[in-house]
Amino acid sequence: MPEGRAAYHRCMNTPVSPWKDRAGPQHRPVPDAGSEDFLVHRELLFSIVYNMLGTVTDTEDVVQETWLSWAAVKDREIAHPRAYLVRIAVNHALTQMRRARRSRESYIGPWLPEPVLTEPDTPDTAIRTESVSLAMLVVLETLTPLQRAVFVLREAFAYDHAEIGAILGRSSAAVRQLAHRAKERVEARRPRYDLDRGTQRIVTERFLDAALGGDLDALMDVLAPEVVMWSDGGGKRRAALRVVEGREKVARLVAAVSAQLRTFAMRPVQLNGGPGVVLFVGGTLYAAAALDPAPGGDRVRGIYGLVNPDKLAQLAEAVRPG
């Protein structure tokens, strides 16, 4: 392992993955001043980059690359470490985003982001509390890399136009225009609304009861007319090769899948701050699905299912059957 990367792992005293970081900072060796600055801002960097990329593995790589860039200059006096680190991370993320989009042209079936567990009793919850919903991450995939970076910094982390301009090397006017276009595109595809956790839980339970019972009429009742269902198998597990749209088609597909999952253990969870469910077979995580409630909270308008084992690997570290 190159010395820079070895230093990064020594600094973390843990694998890069936030879910594997169970020791807590009190058990880490005392870092030097440069490492301490990085550790203070690591959670922020992870959250920003994850919302830009939608994949945990790529996010970990970018955070590590940010550390390497930081370590190369940490002996110099830097007046604002947080601003400097965010700028490095965002620009590394932009490079990774462009590279990833080219590679997805050959992806088999619909591509979905990797979900993150956002339950309060799991390790490193703070890293994941700023994660936007899986449905929103899907919408953000329609933006250009620059638009997405601006939208995430502005809407999720409340950076102003001048601060974003400094991060991206753009004028405030250019950032304002990018922010306006990004917000227009996002709101056209996903108008904003808020639902409390209790309402989310109720519609999730209604959906799960209907799905587990294989009750087609009950499924039709809990699904919104415009419901869409995404299935991401990545060619490694069986999944629909196209997004399924419409209540009748989605209900029949859910009922058919449910009939094949009678031996699975199911557990409701919070994924990316919203309702979801994980499925286990033989104690091994087999699938995860995030639900997107419709405005009003009485029906489901989006189902985002992942069975690609590569995208479930990190989640499997954090969630267990129960």
Automatic annotation (TrEMBL):
Alphabetical list of InterPro entries matching this protein: ECF_Sigma-70_Domain, NTF2-like_dom_sf, RNA_pol_sigma-70_dom, RNA_pol_sigma70_r2, RNA_pol_sigma70_r4_t2, RNA_pol_sigma_r2, RNA_pol_sigma_r3/r4-like, WH-like_DNA-bd_sf
This protein's record includes keyword Cytoplasm: no
Biological process according to GO: DNA-templated transcription initiation
Coiled coil: none
Molecular function as annotated in GO: DNA binding; sigma factor activity
Domain RNA polymerase sigma-70 region: 41-102
NCBIfam families: PRK09636.1 (NF007214), sigma70-ECF (TIGR02937)
Subunit structure: Interacts transiently with the RNA polymerase catalytic core formed by RpoA, RpoB, RpoC and RpoZ (2 alpha, 1 beta, 1 beta' and 1 omega subunit) to form the RNA polymerase holoenzyme that can initiate transcription.
Protein name: RNA polymerase sigma24 factor
Organism listed in the record: Streptomyces antimycoticus
Lineage: Bacteria, Bacillati, Actinomycetota, Actinomycetes, Kitasatosporales
